[in-house]
Specification:
The chain is of the alpha+beta class. Helix content is about 15%, strand content about 30%. It is elongated, with a radius of gyration of 23 Å.
Length: about 80
């Protein structure tokens, strides 16, 4: 094998900023932040979404119709009315 071509894998703590969940994994990502996890100091990577907060994995996905598109469609084409 060639020398110095493989990444430096090490233990890194990933923190989900939306719910505060932390988990330890191996990664070669570079970071300046550190944290204490189970009594030891590890590099810290803050992520926006993980399996603990993503609706697909948690089973809490909901269909949100914030602009009333379904109701507007039904009114426009006469669905749901008693005509």
């Amino acid at each position: 094998m060639k020398a110095d071509i493989h990444p430096n894998y090490r233990f890194v703590v990933f923190r989900d900023v939306s719910n505060g969940t932390e988990f330890l994994s191996r990664s070669c990502i570079e970071t300046r932040d550190t944290c204490t996890f189970e009594g030891q100091e590890y590099p810290l990577v803050q992520i926006d979404i993980s399996a603990t907060s993503h609706p697909f994995y948690t089973g809490t996905q909901k269909l949100l119709d914030t602009e009333g598109r379904v109701e507007r469609f039904n009114r426009k084409y006469g669905f749901g009315s008693s005509n």
